[in-house]
């Protein structure tokens, strides 16, 4: 009974939507307003979601729209495989026949994932093993925020579009405004991404556009093979049938990667 009550409490705080193994014939719209709140998940495989849409192994015949406003909030996941998501859209093994739109406004917030394989995402669209027959649009405004992932293979994404082994039949557009923020990933193979479009082993039949404005921010990845991207388009092993456009404005910012094989990119386009 205690476990049930705890889960209910977390769901009430999260103001999030989750779908697994579902068939949705229509649009999925999540409009959330989170203020002065704490969302915490602790333990192996822990997950903390705030103002987010999560879709796994599902089919959606319509648009997926997430509009979240998060202020004065803390979103924390601690433990091996921990995941913390704030104002984000997360698709895994899903098929969406429509646009995926994420519009997030995050202010005075902390998003933290701690543990091996930890993941922290703020104002982000993340896709893995998914297909979208429409545009993927991410418009995020992040101010006075900290996004932290700590542990081996840790990942921290802020104001980012992250595609892995996915297929998009439409444009991928990322428009992010990041001010007075810290984005940190610490650990072997750690990755920190701010105002970035990152693609790996994916296919896009349309333009890839990244327009990012980063001011007074720190983007840090520490550890062997660490990667830090700020206002960047990073494409690895992917196919794009369209233009790749990167328009980034970075001011008063620090972008740091420390460790063997570490890499730091600012306002760049990188294709491998």
Characterise this structure.
The protein has one helix at residues 2-14; strands at residues 17-20, 23-24, 28-42, 47-50, 53-56, 59-60, 64-78, 83-86, 89-92, 95-96, 100-114, 119-122, 125-128, 131-132, 136-150, 155-158, 161-164, 167-168, 172-186, 191-194, 197-200, 203-204, 208-215, 218-222, 227-230, 233-236, 239-240, 244-251, 254-258, 263-266, 269-271. It has 272 residues and is mainly beta. The chain has one domain. Strands 3, 7, 11, 15, 19, 23, 24, 28 and 29 form a nine-stranded parallel β-sheet that branches. An eight-stranded parallel β-sheet has the order 1-5-9-13-17-21-26-31, with no helix packed on it. It has a seven-stranded parallel β-sheet with strand order 2-6-10-14-18-22-27, with no helix packed on it. The longest helix is centred in the first third of the chain and has 13 residues, at 2-14. It is globular, with a radius of gyration of 17 Å. It starts with a helix and ends with a strand. Mean pLDDT is 87; it is low at 1-14.
């Amino acid at each position: 009974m205690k476990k049930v009550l705890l889960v209910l409490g977390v769901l009430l705080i999260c103001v999030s939507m989750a779908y697994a193994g579902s068939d949705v014939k229509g649009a999925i719209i999540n409009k959330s307003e989170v203020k002065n709140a704490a969302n915490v998940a602790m333990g192996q495989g822990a997950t903390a979601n705030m103002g987010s849409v999560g879709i796994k192994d599902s089919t959606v015949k319509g648009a997926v729209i997430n509009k979240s406003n998060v202020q004065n909030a803390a979103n924390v996941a601690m433990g091996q495989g921990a995941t913390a998501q704030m104002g984000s859209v997360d698709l895994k093994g899903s098929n969406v026949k429509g646009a995926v739109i994420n519009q997030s406004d995050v202010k005075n917030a902390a998003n933290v994932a701690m543990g091996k394989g930890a993941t922290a995402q703020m104002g982000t669209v993340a896709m893995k093993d998914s297909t979208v027959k429409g545009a993927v649009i991410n418009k995020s405004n992040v101010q006075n925020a900290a996004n932290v992932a700590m542990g081996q293979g840790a990942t921290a994404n802020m104001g980012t579009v992250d595609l892995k082994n996915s297929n998009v039949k439409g444009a991928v557009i990322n428009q992010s405004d990041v001010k007075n923020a810290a984005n940190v990933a610490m650990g072997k193979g750690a990755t920190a991404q701010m105002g970035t479009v990152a693609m790996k082993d994916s296919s896009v039949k349309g333009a890839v556009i990244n327009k990012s404005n980063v001011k007074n921010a720190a983007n840090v990845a520490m550890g062997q093979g660490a990667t830090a991207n700020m206002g960047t388009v990073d494409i690895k092993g992917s196919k794009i049938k369209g233009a790749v456009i990167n328009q980034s404005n970075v001011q008063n910012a620090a972008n740091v990667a420390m460790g063997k094989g570490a890499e730091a990119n600012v306002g760049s386009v990188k294709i491998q």
